[in-house]
Amino acid sequence: MKRTATIAGIASIAILAATSVQAQQSGYGQCGGESWTGATTCVSGWTCTFLSEYYSQCLPSSSTLTTTTSSTTSSATSTSAASTATSTSGGKLQWFGVDESCAEFGTAMPGTWGVDFTFADTTTIGEFISQGFNIFRIPFAMERMAQGSVDAALDEAYLTNYSVAVNYITENGAYAVLDAHNYGRYNGSIITDTTAFQTFWSNMATAFKDNSNVIFDTNNEYHDMDETLVFDLNQAAIDGIRGAGATTQYIFAEGNSWTGAWTWNTTNDALKDLDDPEDLLIYEMHQYLDSDGSGTSATCVSSTIGVERVEGATAWLKSNGKLGILGEYAGGPNSVCEDAVTGMLDHLTANNDVWLGAVWWAAGPWWPADTWASIEPPSGQAYVYYDEILQAYV
Ligand SMILES: *[C@@H]1O[C@H](CO)[C@@H](O)[C@H](O)[C@H]1NC(C)=O
Ligand SMILES: *[C@@H]1O[C@H](CO)[C@@H](O)[C@H](O)[C@H]1NC(C)=O
Ligand SMILES: *[C@@H]1O[C@H](CO)[C@@H](O)[C@H](O)[C@H]1NC(C)=O
Questions:
Q1: Residue 48 maps to a domain
Q2: Overall domain count for the chain
Q3: Contacts of 315 (CB under 8 A, 6+ apart)
Q4: The whole model's pTM is what?
Q5: Which of 167, 204, 236, 286 is most buried, with most CB under 10 Å away?
Q6: CA of 352 to the centre of ligand 1 (A)
Q7: C-alpha angle 109/111/113, rounded to 5°?
């Protein structure tokens, strides 16, 4: 294992070196964003598309039909390995896993399956489950799940495809986090209609209420919004979910300012008053370790930056009697980041009375293998470097 990892590590350094002299980025690779120094143009058939100030990505040129080899149909073999992957007490986090990206990819809404977006691969999820990983956060786009308006009936085709990975995960004893990956926005505008948002979550909860291993994540990374609105949207989601009869599942609430752990104690203090009648509310925070905390650079500030950025949140959880989960984090494949990541995970583990888990961003079939944060087996750069390191935490 170690030997394989080393050889693959050398290979990926070679790929990285090759990439740096390449003029053009491959499909779905990063091609721009604050402090990005790599290629800013894409290979033929792909267009560098602005997604946010932190991230531009090579997406299929609109006129180009791209064939994809990924498939969502290979759910055939259920292993029973996962039934042993239940929570442990003392010295471990209850949940340890990865984000399973790709259903949220692309900017065309609703867009086309296999062109703009695809779904998580149950074969590689099964690999993680066999290693003991027990939580998978699966982003989706609200504009695809509820087409035309926030409170539209759920789209059956998208929901059915999305449910394949959800069901695979939960049937194998792990937890599936339904992540509305929308930054508090729908079709580019901040969601202000809390009633419609409540209906959306009521519809989602109705679809999944019989699955006790499903977790509802109200929205990914609210930012640049009125804090009262962030509170109200979270409360509306809670009310919609519980009102639909989903009373046994956990709910993850995210906060403003990209739900950053490092700013939680100053930005999101008001969220302590969210009210879940079932008392199954968990605060989901994200933390990256590069200079601006955006997760766009493989360089970490220092080997201790992980602990430094989350300890204020730990104190907040403790003093308010709340529970938290780190729903996104990553570090580049280098020794400074490795120490920063393990230092942070050791801190969470030592405080597992308030921290319930950690989830790496991200796995997913369409990440190019040379994306530094890609933990998609078998050749994602983070998988090659970090999988064995992370297995110590499951
Ligand atoms: C999305 O916004 C655009 C304008 O920005 C508008 O033309 C379109 O109708 C909107 N679509 C939906 C589904 O709201
Ligand atoms: C769902 O997946 C099938 C392939 O399994 C694909 O043909 C179809 O277009 C997908 N639909 C959506 C909306 O994702
Ligand atoms: C808030 O959290 C940050 C990041 O962990 C920490 O540096 C800071 O000391 C905390 N501030 C307070 C007032 O707890």
A1: no
A2: 1
A3: 265
A4: 0.81
A5: 204
A6: 44
A7: 140
Q: Is the CB of 312 under 6 A from ligand 3?
A: yes
Instruction: List the residue whose alpha carbon is closest to atom 10 of ligand 2.
Output: 113
Domain membership of residue 246 (yes or no) is: yes
Alpha-carbon distance 20 to 224, whole Å?
Answer: 34
Q: Which of 221, 254, 284, 376 is catalytic?
A: 221
CATH number for the domain spanning 284: value is 3.20.20.80
pLDDT tens for each residue of 108-136: 999 999 999 999 999 999 999 999 999 99
Tokens linked to 136? 């998978």
- Taking the C-alpha atoms of residue 388 and residue 172, their distance in angstroms, rounded to an integer, is 22
Q: Which atom of ligand 2 is nearest to the CA of 71?
A: 5
pLDDT tens for 4-31 read 232 233 333 333 333 333 478 887 788 8
Say which DSSP state 90 is in: S
Single out the residue of 183, 181, 200 nearest to residue 241, CA to CA.
Answer: 200
| 104 catalytic residue (yes or no) | no
Q: Which residue segment(s) compose the domain that 195 sits in?
A: 95-391
Phi-psi region of 120 (alpha: psi -120 to 50; beta: other; left: phi over 0): beta
Secondary structure (DSSP) of 49-61:
EEEETTEEEEEE-
Residue 346 is assigned to a structural domain of this protein: yes
